[in-house]
Structures are given as C-alpha cells and as structure tokens.
Amino acid sequence: MIATPDRTPLPRKFFDRPVLEVAPDLLGRILVRTTPDGPIALRLTEVEAYDGPNDPGSHAYRGRTARNDVMFGPPGHVYVYFTYGMWFCMNLVCGPEGRASAVLLRAGEIVEGAELARTRRLSARNDKELAKGPARLATALGVDRALNGTDACTTDDTPLRVLTGTPVPSGQVRNGPRTGVSGEGAVHPWRFWVADDPTVSPYRAHVPRRRRS
C-alpha cells in the first residue's frame, strides 16, 4: 500500500506552470486509477513534454481541433488520444488555460494493484514491463477515451487522480530526445526519466511508416 503522505492529491497550481517545469516534477508522483475491478497505483518514472504552439511535435501545434480540445482547457485535466488505430495514450494538461501544453505519461512502476494490471498486460514478461511505454501504461491502467477530460485534481470521487508521492531528486533526473518524434520537434530534449530505473522504456528514434503499395 502507498504511505499516507502520498495520498495527498496534487493541487491545480502544480499543473498551472510551464510544461518544462511540470514534466520533470511529475517523476516520482503517484497516479491512482480507480475502476470497478479495483484500484491501480503507479509511480511515474518517464514522461515527455509537449509545448503546444511552440512545438512541431505537439498535437496542438496547428491549433484547436475536436481531437485536442482538452489540451486547451484548464490545467490538471487528462488528455487521452488514440494512436496507430490500436493504442490509447494519456497526458496531463498543464500551463494556463488556452495554452495547450501537456505531459505524455510514458512509463511507471505499478506500486499497487499489480494483480489487476497483469490481467490487462498478459504479454508482459515481468512486472517491470507492465507500464513500460505509454500504450502499455494506458493498457495496464484501463485507460481509454472515456477518461478524456477527467479532472485529476479534484478531491471528489474520480476515476483518476495524481498524488504527491515522493518527488525524484534533480540529480536522478535525466533528459533527452523524445521517442518517435519526427521533423523539427525531434531535436527537443524534452523526455525526462528516472536514472537507472528498470521501468523506463528504451529510446527509439522516429522511423517513417511505409505506405502499402
């Protein structure tokens, strides 16, 4: 079980900051997903920052759409998108309302509810792989588009909440290029992770998808 101090939800002001401040500060925080099957808690070990109109790699770079609308809303809300026709990925919106920046949750350590996570991640060879990558993280937690727009800062009963946890000391935080980002956005070293943590996903550069002939 998570220690009592970790159960304090992060306030909205935590997310109402520039995305490059929020992203590394999310490492070590606890994400709690509550479902009818039971709760799962995850300690964040890897994230990526996306800076809206200043970032060619961001979904919001070209403006507001039905897909990215939540990114423009209040900070502390959940932005979920569907990718490659197969997977969901989860982000936490940050910065002032209308700014459209968010942090992609890339990997974490399941610290509670591993039994439930295993039923959703049958291909995981061990518990370190349960949430090792953004699609695996979302799958392990049972995240889909139904959670898009969820307020992760509320103290009311909610399906997803971000708790204080234990922040990672700056000396243990590493950063580098974001995984799979192409074009001008590929140069930004906006992926942050906990040094030497076995749940962090491996870096992969962008590989263009080949069109079927």
Structure, explained:
With 213 residues, this protein is α+β, with helices and mostly antiparallel strands. It is 12% helix and 27% strand. The protein has helices at residues 12-15, 19-25, 114-120, 134-141, and strands at 30-35, 38-50, 78-83, 87-94, 101-112, 160-163, 173-176, 191-194.
Keywords:
8 strands; alpha+beta; disordered N terminus; globular
- Rg, please? 16 Å
Largest sheet: 8 strands, antiparallel
Number of distinct helices: 4
Helix content percent band: 10-25%
Distance between the terminal alpha carbons, to the nearest Å?
Answer: 52 Å
Shape: globular
Compressed to H and E, one letter per element, the order equals HHEEEEEHHEEE
Total strands: 8
Strand content: 25-35%
* Helix/strand/pairing category: alpha+beta
- Poorly predicted regions are 1-5
Overall average residue pLDDT: 91
EC number: 3.2.2.-
Family: Belongs to the DNA glycosylase MPG family.
GO molecular function, one term: hydrolase activity, acting on glycosyl bonds
Protein name: Putative 3-methyladenine DNA glycosylase
